[in-house]
Design a protein that fits this description.
By secondary structure, chain A is mainly α. Chain A is about 75% helix and about 0% strand. Chain A contains 12 helices and no strands. By secondary structure, chain B is of the alpha/beta class. Chain B has 12 helices and 13 strands. In chain B, a hairpin with a 2-residue loop joins β11 and β12. In chain B, α5 runs antiparallel to α6.
Chain lengths: ~270, ~325
């Protein structure tokens, strides 16, 4: 009927709409996931709040920790990806079969799902922040359009990277029944190296150095620093965005490789 | 006219992990995994003309589903070639996928929590179907399948039969010329099975579609397919009309009798093998070539009220075909 941009817009609109309609059937789980998204940074904040007392830890006073962990909460909600669980299920249960018979790569369905649940949970968390900011000056952010534009770009790169990490790890289900366990392991490492439990500046120097050479800081800590930290230097921006672009390219390449090899290997379980 | 589907020397091997039972076996498999090659499909060749309905028969694990998945481009063949409407399924991409429908009886594409109508809308966007065409096709499919009442109900509330009908409708909205159906009537009651068979025939007649289906229900085969492919242990045993298979394989005929009083089972057994005897009805099996002569002798010697000569049930013929192949020096699958 038509091609290109209009067709893909209609496809994504239809897939996101369906994802929302399904989500509406499971309202309780939405509440639970949003609660989880708030609880983890809240606990980390509580601990650092107590440690910092009236002084500062590694240059972070209480207000800095508050702003940092609210930043973590929002950026995490905007970049989170659970797609490995879905993909693992598709592959192991045979639900990938009819998806492969359609004229559209299943990665688009995952991406649409990802956008759907992210829009929903990030919207809720943004609301939590707005309420908190109205009563608590520490978590307010300066209204600086330039910085917000940089944050938007960094969050988009981080979201894309986390999506491809999750999707590619899910593709490991072509080879192993433990793909989701690998994703859990990744999430565990990311707790520390991506800056979820503490700002990277507070990690032991050796660990922080190792982290700089991996993708973890670029999927969360860098956009959070842009959002909540001091104005970045040009060097920091080049390093941060450079790291994001390189690691995104690496993960997209890994996805393409895993997809092509995995399909060839596909045992097509379930019938 | 070029064939709609052509498979040449198609083979598929799987590597299956094997391990000894118990904890020790599990640990050993962790460090020294062992694999075994399973030859799911071996050198299968056939052609299907446009508009043909062909049934794929074989016991569980015979290689039917694996072959269908190779034809639909889901599985990569270990060797051999496939052409479906002129495309290589593996490299055909979206243009190829728009020309096929794949329905798996044990897996559904309908979104479980939503009405089937929502999956239809999704497929409209995915297959890029213009709105007037979409509306006309939904109406047409709903009429043919009797779906008017069910399209707005969440799929999870539908009966198995209603679900399969919606599944077929969802798979056919883009009006594909090639249908791959894997057990489309699995678990359905007799009337739902019948409705689906009638629908498939009507769809083929109306759009000239080519249909390849697998089924365990012989009624599906006898009602739908003009031709059968019989596969066992990955090898194609037979390709042709069902009647011809019966004539080739079945060495016997069944004489179905209604007898008058005073005929004992022992007396009847003098004419052939008594398959059942429940007075006044009896079924006698006799060598195919002697069916006519034995009938004449029976009519002359016994008080026969009614007599008909039938082929053995098709299930029996197929079983016999498999048994012959197994006894014919076939090497094991693995």
């Amino acid at each position: 009927m038509s091609g290109g941009f209009a067709l893909w817009t209609r496809r994504y609109a239809a897939m996101i709409r369906n994802a929302w309609l399904v989500n509406l059937q499971y309202r309780a789980s939405i509440v639970l996931w949003v609660l989880w998204g708030v609880t983890e940074p809240a606990i980390a904040l509580g601990i650092w709040w107590a440690i910092a007392g009236d002084g500062a830890v590694g240059g972070y006073a209480r207000a800095d920790f508050a702003r940092y962990f609210f930043g973590v909460m929002l950026v995490n909600a905007l970049t989170i990806a659970w797609d490995s669980w879905q993909l693992d299920h598709w592959i192991r249960e045979g639900d990938l079969n009819y998806r492969l018979a359609r004229p559209i790569n299943p990665v688009h369905e995952s991406l649409a799902d990802n956008l759907a649940y992210k829009a929903r949970s990030a919207g809720t968390i943004l609301l939590v922040w707005l309420i908190a900011a109205s009563v608590w000056p520490a978590v307010r952010l300066p209204l600086d359009p330039g910085r917000w534009a940089l944050v938007a770009v960094a969050v988009s790169f981080a979201a894309a990277m986390r999506f491809f990490i999750s999707f590619t790890t899910g593709l490991l289900a072509f080879w192993t029944t433990r793909a989701t366990a690998i994703m859990e392991l990744h999430a565990g490492v990311a707790m520390f190296l991506a800056g979820r439990v503490a700002p990277l500046a507070l990690l032991p120097p050796a660990v922080a150095t190792i982290a700089q050479f991996l993708w973890f800081p670029y999927m969360l800590a860098f956009p959070v620093a842009l959002l909540t930290g001091a104005a970045p230097t040009t060097g920091e921006l080049i390093l941060g965005f450079g790291g994001q672009v390189i690691w995104l390219a690496v993960w997209i390449a890994a996805y393409r490789l895993a997809w092509q090899r995995g399909l060839r290997r596909y045992g097509a379980v379930g019938g | 006219m070029p064939p709609a589907i052509a498979a040449r020397a198609l083979s598929k091997d799987f590597q299956v992990k094997v391990r000894d039972p118990g904890l020790r076996g599990a640990v050993a498999a962790l460090f020294r995994p062992r694999y075994r090659a399973v030859h799911a499909v071996r050198g299968v060749s056939f052609e299907i003309a446009p508009g043909e309905i062909v049934a794929f028969l074989g016991p569980n694990g015979a290689g039917k589903t694996t072959t269908i998945k190779m034809l639909a481009g889901l599985l990569y063949p270990s060797s051999g070639t496939v052409q479906v409407t002129g495309f290589d399924p593996w490299t055909g991409g979206p243009d190829f996928k728009r020309r096929i429908a794949l329905v798996l009886g044990n897996r559904q594409q309908l979104v479980w929590d939503l009405p089937a109508q929502e999956t239809f809308q999704l497929n409209r966007a995915i297959y890029d179907i213009a709105l007037p065409d979409f509306q006309a096709r939904v109406k047409e499919l709903a009429d043919l399948l009797g779906l008017d009442e069910v399209l707005d109900k969440p799929v999870r509330q539908l009966s198995l039969g209603e679900r399969m009908k919606c599944e077929l409708a969802a798979a056919l909205l883009h009006r594909p010329p090639i249908l791959f159906l894997d057990e489309p009537t699995l678990g359905l009651d007799v009337s739902a099975q019948d409705a689906i068979r009638r629908f498939l025939t009507a769809y083929r007649d109306r759009f000239g579609a080519t249909i390849l289906l697998t089924s365990h229900y012989m009624q599906d085969v006898t009602a739908l397919a003009s031709r059968v492919l019989i596969i066992n242990r990955g090898r194609l045993l037979y390709d042709g009309a069902l009647d011809a298979l019966v004539a080739r394989i079945a060495r016997t005929k069944r004489l179905e009798l209604v007898l008058g009083d005073g005929v004992s089972e022992r007396r009847l057994a003098e004419f052939g093998t008594v398959k059942s005897f429940r007075s006044p009805n009896a079924v006698l099996e006799v060598p195919r070539a002697e069916a006519a002569a034995t009938s004449a002798r029976l009519l002359a010697a016994l008080p026969v009220i009614d007599l008909s000569i039938e082929d053995p049930p098709i299930e029996e013929v197929i079983r016999q075909a498999f048994a012959e192949a197994d006894g014919g020096g076939e090497e094991p699958t693995e």
